[in-house]
Amino acid sequence: MTSRPYVIDQMISAKSIAARIEALAREIEAEFSDTDKLVVVGLLRGSFIFIADLVRELDLPVEVDFLEASSYGNSMTSSREVRILKDLRGEIGGRDVLVVEDIIDTGHTMKRVVAFLSAREPGRLRTICLLDKPARREVDYTADWTGFEIPDRFVVGYGIDYAQRNRNLPFIGSVRFTGEADDTGQP
Ligand code: 5GP
Ligand code: MG
Ligand code: MG
Prior knowledge:
With 187 residues, the protein is of the alpha/beta class.
């Protein structure tokens, strides 16, 4: 694999993310005010920071579970065949479920995940994504709640990686290449 030098331009600050999550949490609380216990399902790995911040804002009884679907691997191009790599630990039949995703891009991942979970006949099944790139959609899918609509840029930070790096940045930034590829094999 080749690598290219790049810099990260901040796109959404940590403060803006926190403010948006607060507002979204109020809407989610209103939707699920009558629920016994909401099952909040994070899609690994990109949503791990988003789900952590979101559940701490939710004044609702919640259970947290995780699902992993196949994604980009180390490349920047999407795969249209989505596989479930890790299933939930808990049961969701008859329960209210909120699926938490980092980014909706082509829409294939969310469409597949929603079909997979719907087959278990949950109660209400709702979805939230932090980022949405509507310009890249290949299949029709819109989350019930969206943090920010963004242009067609490759982003990192706040849980989201480029070749497994940059997940620990507290903000969302876009990757900008500054030079030619080399052959070090290191991203
Ligand atoms: P979709 O199936 O909607 O095309 O892809 C969704 C998944 O692709 C996201 O959950 C995320 O893992 C990955 N993805 C989409 N856009 C980006 C991006 O800009 N940066 C990174 N790191 N991953 C992305
Ligand atoms: Mg993802
Ligand atoms: Mg990834």
